[in-house]
Sequence to fold (395 residues):
Amino acid sequence: MAQPAWQDPVLLPLDSAPVPEYGSGSLADLLPTLVAGQGVPGFTAAIPELTPADRNCVFLIDGLGWEQIKAHPDEAPFLHSLLPTSRGGTGRPVTAGFPATTATSLASVGTGLPPGEHGLPGYTVRDPETGALMNQLRWKPWTPPKVWQPYPTVFQLADAAGVRTAQVSAPAFEQTPLTKVALSGGSFLGRLTGEERMDVAAERLAAGDRSLVYTYYSEVDGKGHRFGIDSDAWRGQLMYVDGLARRLAEQLPPRSALYITADHGMIDIPFDEQSRIDFDEDWELRAGVAQLGGEGRARHVYAVPGAEADVLTVWREVLGEQFWVASRDEAVEAGWFGPRIDERVLGRIGDVVAAAHDDVVITASVNEPHESAMVGMHGSMTPVEQLVPLLEVRT
Fold:
């Protein structure tokens, strides 16, 4: 609740932000743990609760967080029944990483690195080389992929070590830069329907004595953004993907482990002025800001040179009761983007970073009309966005 105008705002302390479990229980730790159990050199089991398997399959459902599965036992009976298996039978989730957004999370999954190292620390971030805002999901403007993210993927290293490796996804994703820098290695098998992906994933899993298969489904996230997670359209997608997960689980070959996870959760944001703060209409927030990056619940704010301290002060005064508002140095020191930050990545992080605590977003109605119209949002460190399942089926 906002303070009376004559009182100073009660700012959210930065140390109250629930930093992701980098190094022991984040999405970046999943594939390194799995391939370490398959004997791939150079990896260690970062998630100690997981038991090695010869054949590992990861099914990533875009946008289906831990809290959403818990809240929908009727629509997702199979997934809900697997909640006690999560994280090696502890019944606990893992964390996505910050920001909890698709490009960042998929890069963390595929490279086994936190955002501060793989270098995709948000939906849109500034390219220090050109000064342009780079959309890392759509890869616009064009940027050489291997310059932007130079590390090999876990899939590539596993494939080189003799593990039969495959990605099974929509054909449209095969040649995208994000796939190349985050998920490439071994075979890419494009299949249009969810059922085909599940069947092919099971076939590829059985094709090697040691195998690593990744498959993906996007429309839970799509319906959530468009209609919200309190909509019939979203619930219909949840029911559908619950059936896909069961279909895959029932086809697993011997000596297999299936892990069902997600890249982030989601929260519906009301369409009112208190819940949606329009940057493009707010002169205080715009003052001294050269570029606004990130997304509604996880903003990178790039200041006009020399105005960094003033922008931080104003953003804290205006938003600090509802957002964790940090300078770049503070966000890095707090470990929001991981324990280490590569030098090439540092300038991509905002001079000010704002992560939502309350049910509120910073929209940009003029410059981001599509994103500003979304019902479901994500990006921050709250449990509903940050916690993702690591459901397990073994044979």
Remarks:
- The mean pLDDT is 97.
- Residues 232-249 form the longest helix (18 residues).
- The longest strand covers residues 55-61.
- The radius of gyration is 20 Å.
